[in-house]
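[agent] plan:
  1. take the single chain provided in the ticket
  2. run structure prediction with default settings
  3. attach structure tokens to the ticket
  4. add a short note for the reviewer (M.T.)
[agent] executing step 1
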Amino acid sequence: MNFRIYFFFIILLIVCACNNEDEDTKPQSDSINKIMPLGASRVEGARPLYESFRYELWKDLKENNWTFDFIGTQSDDASYPAFDGEDFDIDHEGRGGWTSEQILGGLEDWLNQTGSPDIVLFSSPGGNDILENMDYNQAVQNINSIVDIIQSNNSNVTIIIEQPAQGHSDIMTPDFINTFNQLKEDVATIAATKSTSTSQVIAVDMYTGFNDNYLADEVHYNQQGAEFIAERYYQVLENILE
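[agent] step 2 finished; step 3 output follows
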């Protein structure tokens, strides 16, 4: 199968998993440690086809008695077991198949609806841009602009930005590997240059130790993968949560 057509087929699957926008605006959270998971299908999830890291991270935070609230205009309608007598916090800002340009275009409106997050988990930035063979330099520019908007909304925000986990080895061509390696470097640069005295931007390595056994398909997490990503986030969060 032609490589470009193959990736187009993957994108169609991702887009089809996208949920509709919520019709009703949610009340803004007054919790400390308001956490916004931001990104595309790796944030959104699509049980039972593949997992988001959010549920595993939520359990990690609850188990260690942190006070927090996941925020976002989107809601997860999948079924999750209660943990320690509590129901999963389903709020998030993930949309399957969305590119950095689409996230950039919607972000200010989402922030107006949710109120300012204290922490943003920026998942797999530019991942769908790479899958769709879009202009890489434009994707990096969009990622920078996304960080700018978040910091303009809250000058004290902490942004944890992924150096993303790779896709399945079946799709990791030499060109694709080179692009992902470049993205790792560029995310580290963005974190270093965008951090201010009041707003940390922290790059988190999601690729070291990640392998095919953590994937449900070409790009999405299975249960093990979700646990792996959640643990990497938790290792950062436990040092910055109030």
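[agent] step 4 note for reviewer: Residues 1-9, 11-23 have pLDDT under 50 and may be disordered.
[agent] ticket updated
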